[in-house]
Amino acid sequence: MRRQRLLAFGSILVLTTLPVLLRRLRRNMMRYDRLMISEAEILKKLRKVCLGLADAEETISFGHPTFRVRGGKIFAVLETYKGELGICVNVGKLMQGMFLDDPRFFRTPYIGKHGWVTLRVYAERLNWKEIHELVTGSYRLVAPKSGGKRNSSSRLRTPGIPE
C-alpha cells in the first residue's frame, strides 16, 4: 500500500502519492542544478568583464570581491546577502526604480540609496551580455572624466585592439 500525503496549495487540496512527489522534486532539482554555475565560475566571468575596462582593479572589501577604477570608486561587487549571491552595480538614482520593477533585482543594502541594485544570480539563467552592459554603465558613472571633452569610448578598452 502506497503512502499518501495531502498537500495544501493555497485553498486547493491535492492528493498525491509520496513517490510521485519525490520523482517530480528530483526531476526539477536536476533541471535547476544544470542551470546553476558555481560562485567561482561567476567570479571568473565577472572578473573578465570588469578587468576589461580601462584602469579597473579588483580588491576585497568587507570580504567581497570588489571592482573599482584604480585608486577611485567601486563600480561592481559580487556578494552574498542573506544567503543569496548577487552582482551589485550602480545604475543611478533615476534608473533604479526601473530595475527594481524586475524581480531579478533588489535594492543593494546600505548603498542602495545611492542608486545601487543587486542582480540575483540564481533568479534565472544569467545573460552575460546584459551583465556586461550593467557593469559598463556602472563603470561610466564612476570613471574619471577626461580633460575638457567627455569621450566615453576613450575610457573603454576593446579587447584585441591596441590603444
Structural description of this entry:
With 163 residues, this protein is an alpha+beta fold. The chain has helices at residues 18-35, 39-50, 93-100, 128-142, and strands at 4-9, 12-17, 56-61, 64-69, 74-81, 84-90, 105-107, 116-120. The chain has a single domain (39-155), classed as Aspartate Aminotransferase, domain 1, CATH 3.90.1150.30. It has four helices and eight strands; from the N terminus they run ββααββββαββα. A hairpin with a 2-residue loop joins strand 5 and strand 6. The chain is globular, with a radius of gyration of 21 Å. The N and C termini lie far apart (74 Å). The model is unreliable at 1-15 and 147-155 (pLDDT under 50).
Spell out the key features of this protein.
single chain, about 160 residues, alpha+beta, Aspartate Aminotransferase, domain 1, six-stranded antiparallel beta sheet, globular, disordered N terminus
Biggest β-sheet strands, sense, barrel: 6 strands, antiparallel
Mean pLDDT: 80
Order of helices and strands: EEHHEEEEHEEH
Number of domains: 1
Helix proportion: 25-40%
Structural class: alpha+beta
Unreliable residue stretches: 1-15, 147-155
Q: Report, as a whole number of angstroms, the end-to-end distance.
A: 74 Å
CATH architecture: Alpha-Beta Complex
Query: What's the CATH class label?
Result: Alpha Beta
Radius of gyration: 21 Å
In short:
33% of the residues lie in helices and 29% in strands.
